[in-house]
From TrEMBL, chain A:
One GO MF term attached to the UniProt entry: acetyl-CoA C-acyltransferase activity
Keyword tags: Transferase
InterPro entries: Thiolase (IPR002155), Thiolase-like (IPR016039), Thiolase_C_2 (IPR055140), Thiolase_N (IPR020616)
Domain annotation Thiolase C-terminal: ranges: 232-376
Official protein name in the record: Acetyl-CoA acetyltransferase
Residue ranges of domain Thiolase N-terminal in the record: 4-218
Source organism (scientific name): Bradyrhizobium huanghuaihaiense
Pfam families in the cross-refs: Thiolase_C_1, Thiolase_N
From TrEMBL, chain B:
Coiled-coil stretches: none
Full protein name: Putative OB-fold protein
Pfam families reported in the protein's UniProt record: OB_ChsH2_C (PF01796), zf-ChsH2 (PF12172)
SUPFAM superfamilies the UniProt entry points to: Nucleic acid-binding proteins
Source taxon at top rank: Bacteria
All copies of domain ChsH2 C-terminal OB-fold, residue ranges: 46-104
Domain called ChsH2 rubredoxin-like zinc ribbon: residue spans: 12-41
């Protein structure tokens, strides 16, 4: 059994003068405080990577900086799926008795620490160095290709995709830590600058500074426990050129494995925290996971299904699209928000019942997937 | 190891692929083995350059001065006649399902495959 005993999240946006280590430390301290634990009680550290400050041993760099001497520590790299992959590993480490309290942490000054061009270039390197990168694609182009094909196969329109940007912005407007607080409409998304068609600026997540952390423990430290009920991964390819057909992507495989591991069904889920690097990512994942029928996710957004008061509240902090994306910490914000919802601490964003949450992360170009079920226990 | 033949990734105007003699698997990313069965040295062959558009994305925001000079450029995934999928450039108006044929164009200091509608 494993529990998420504490969570920490900085605001996303500009943190002028903060390094990646500063942002990691800030989030880590917040998570420790939330769990009611002292530094010395942390015996495991898992951390993400920083594109601004790459290091071959970031976990020990962080541990030394933060002032802890863990018995288990290393970094994990699975692109956007890193946060949930670390959580899955922490779950297994704790269950296996390797560690008692594992600190999972990531932070990056991606917005102020390097130029936007540098971020775009760094991320484009997930493409094949010989067969893709020389063609000048960007991450939005990789996802633009997927979007073009998905729209073709399932009759999804650009206006449909825009709905997800509008929804995430409306959620971000209610969170003081979000990068964007100006409401937008479908027309704004449609009129925003073309980036990699069919994706426009407002279909894309921003580049942000920020940090996030959690503590995964063998036993709960507070009254309300958030238990990791079970999780699973799937990795079908790295490069979009080598991706399988849309009907055979990893999200469907990992969710099937996670359902089998937990005995849970999608109908049990009360809150959804789903990776949303682009509007197409969110639309596809919702449909791959079974949170909406094929080609039907946008209609569900329009009907209020994924709103705070809807049947399946989704990314109530605003997601990557509007809370922001600081690299590994970006998708970890989804878990922090799920935890706040499950423990009744989401303030004006609180949903009616977040007793069981489904989390899903995606790395690369729908390459690596992690699905995870969390359950509230009293 | 079979003799290397010309390929666009080496700056030459050709598209090549590998076809495994043991299991028949066709692969575009060249390796010293077949990714399906592991057999060594799958022979290389030159592709016809004919295929069908699988997906397109018109890049309007590039990240380097060299690539920015070409904006907008259309990135394609093409299902080639020989049974492999590749990424390439192509005419701006291309749509999914179009039959296309390859030529080669300079792009950001290198030579890249460029597809246009088959006439």
């Amino acid at each position: 059994m494993s529990f998420i005993t504490g969570v920490g999240l900085t605001p996303f946006g500009k943190h002028e003068g903060s390094s990646s280590l500063d942002l990691m430390s800030k989030a880590a301290q917040a998570a420790l405080d939330d769990a009611g634990l002292k530094r010395a009680e942390i015996d495991g550290v898992l951390c993400g990577y920083s594109t601004v400050s790459p290091h071959i041993m970031l976990a020990t760099v962080f541990a030394e900086h933060f002032g802890i001497r863990p018995s288990y520590a290393h970094a994990v790299q699975v692109g956007g799926a890193t946060g949930l992959a670390m959580t899955m590993l922490a779950h297994h480490l704790v269950e296996a008795g390797v560690a008692k309290h594992v600190l999972v942490v990531a932070g990056e000054n991606r917005l102020t620490g390097q130029s936007r061009d540098a971020s775009i270039q760094a991320l484009a390197q997930v493409g094949h160095p010989d067969y893709e990168v020389p063609l000048g694609p960007t991450i939005p182009a990789y996802y633009g290709l997927v979007a073009n094909r998905y729209m073709h196969e399932y009759g999804v329109t650009e206006e449909d995709l825009a709905e997800f940007a509008v929804l995430m912005r409306s959620h971000a407007c209610t969170h003081p830590g979000a990068q964007f607080h100006d409401p937008i409409e479908v027309a704004d998304v449609m009129a925003s600058k073309p980036v990699a068609m069919p994706l426009k600026l407002l279909d894309c997540c921003p580049v942000s500074d920020g940090g996030a952390a959690f503590v995964i423990s063998r036993a709960r430290t507070g009254e309300t426990g958030v238990r990791i009920r079970g999780c699973a991964q799937a990795h079908t390819h790295q490069h979009v050129t080598a991706a399988p057909a849309l009907s055979e992507l990893g999200a469907e495989i990992s969710i099937a494995r996670a359902k089998e591991a937990t005995g849970l069904a999608i109908s049990d889920v009360r809150y959804a925290a789903i990776y949303d690097s682009f509007t197409i990512t969110l639309a596809m994942l919702l449909e791959d996971l079974g949170l909406a029928g094929r080609g039907e996710a946008a209609a569900r957004v329009r009907a209020g299904h994924f709103g705070r008061d809807g049947a399946m509240p989704l990314n109530t902090h605003g997601g990557l699209l509007s809370y922001g994306h600081c690299g590994v910490g970006g998708a970890m914000a989804h878990l922090v928000e799920a935890h706040l919802q499950m423990t009744g601490r989401a303030a004006n964003r609180q949903v009616h019942d977040a007793s069981i949450a489904l989390l899903h992360g995606d790395g690369g170009v729908l390459s690596s997937h992690v699905s995870m079920f969390l359950e509230r226990v009293r | 190891m079979s003799k290397r033949i010309a390929d666009w990734t080496k700056g030459e105007g050709a598209i090549t692929y590998q076809a495994c003699t043991s299991c028949g698997h066709v692969q575009y990313f060249h390796r010293a083995f077949c990714a399906a069965c592991g057999a060594s040295d799958p022979p290389e062959a030159r592709a016809s350059g004919k295929g069908r558009v699988y997906a397109t994305s018109l890049v309007c925001r590039a990240a380097t001065p060299e690539t920015r000079a070409h904006v907008p450029y259309n990135i394609l995934l093409v299902d080639c006649a020989e049974g492999f999928r590749m990424m390439a450039h192509g005419d701006n108006g291309l749509a999914i399902g179009d039959s296309v044929v390859a030529s080669f164009k300079p792009f950001a200091g290198t030579l890249v495959p460029y597809f246009a509608k088959e006439k």
